[in-house]
Amino acid sequence: MKITKTNLDGCFVIEPEVFGDTRGSFFESFNHKTFEKKTGLNISFVQDNQSISQKGVLRGLHQQIGEFAQAKLIRVIKGKVLDVVVDVRKESITFGKHFSIELTGENNKQLFIPKGFLHGFITLEDDTFFTYKCDNYYNPESEFGIIYNDSTLGIDWVLSESEINLSEKDKSLNTFNSFIKIKNSEIH
């Protein structure tokens, strides 16, 4: 398993070793001992989630705050997404910076996202199966989000505005400037 640091502290790209032959392929998608050894992080995942989306569906930018903050391990089983994370840990040297990566069912790359990050993705192919592990349980009262197209963040979502399909909830998320005004203790 290859683990590479991103430009955001604590955020890693994980590439499993894939074994294949005429029958198909096999890979270990997560190994706690290897992950801990290579990152220094001791993570225990408690919840797995999956979504299936058509091309142009944008989900984000979201996070859980307070005692329900979550670290996540993201991957695509089938299809393709542009996955985006934003560091919103106010004490971080990369506060307000983002990282994006294309995750596909073919490249098998995964993204580890620590607590204190916003997360979102846009599907680039129909029938995309997206899955992620969380180290904390979902709590609807702890949801927080920033609008995907906030100009302060400067994220390139690849598709045009007319191709993007958002939920009503995601259309009404906060701006990054409104986030900055929230007390640090309310976010993490």
In short:
11% of the residues lie in helices and 38% in strands.
Shape: globular
CATH superfamily: Jelly Rolls
User: What's the total number of strands?
Assistant: 13
Helix content: 10-25%
Mean pLDDT: 92
SS summary, helix count: 4
CATH topology title: Jelly Rolls
Query: SSE order in H/E notation?
Result: EEEEHEEEEEEEEEHHH
- Which oligomeric state applies? single chain
CATH class: Mainly Beta
Strand line-up in the sheet with most strands? 1-2-10-7-12-5
Give start-end ranges of low-pLDDT stretches.
Answer: none
For the termini, the CA-CA separation is 30 Å
Computed Rg: 16 Å
How can the largest sheet be summarized? 6 strands, antiparallel
**Which architecture name does CATH use?**
Sandwich
SS-based class = mainly beta
Description:
The structure is a single chain. The chain has helices at 32-39, 168-171, 176-180, 184-187, and strands at 2-5, 12-15, 19-21, 24-26, 47-53, 58-64, 72-78, 80-87, 98-104, 110-113, 117-123, 128-134, 143-145. The protein has one domain (2-18, 27-187): Jelly Rolls (Sandwich), CATH 2.60.120.10. The chain is mainly beta and 188 residues long. Helices cover 11% and strands 38% of the residues. The strands form three sheets. The protein has a six-stranded antiparallel β-sheet, with helices on one face. Strands 9-8-11-6-13 form a five-stranded antiparallel β-sheet, with no helix packed on it. The longest helix has 8 residues, at 32-39.
